[in-house]
Amino acid sequence: MSRSQVGNIHLFFLEDVLPVGMAILDRAKKGGAREVIEGWTSSEKPIELLRVEGASSALIMREKLDQIRSGLGNPVVEVEISADPPEEKTFSSSDQKTLDNILIRIDKRIGAIQDHLEKSIDLNS
Prior knowledge:
Layout: H1 3-41, H2 46-53, H3 55-68, H4 93-124
């Protein structure tokens, strides 16, 4: 069996089997066999219900497993990362002219605001 298959099985047990098992164990401690059977009969999706119920207990168990050996309870999952090079954007001359006009208008408005501020400072002095 390849290393990735073993890793997949390990991950399956930690994410799927362990929470269900912990929920069954918790139910058995609380109410015995009756409580365990109720977990299987009280829902249309008993596995999902038990997985949710046992999630917090499973998390604690996974942390304890990590204390024994790093990666045992929370294994490293391999991922592939790829990046596409960014597309170079080209602007047409009309886009450039529009941008230039907008920047000129902004510059004039900033100048008007500066003039107004200078005049109001001179009046208050």
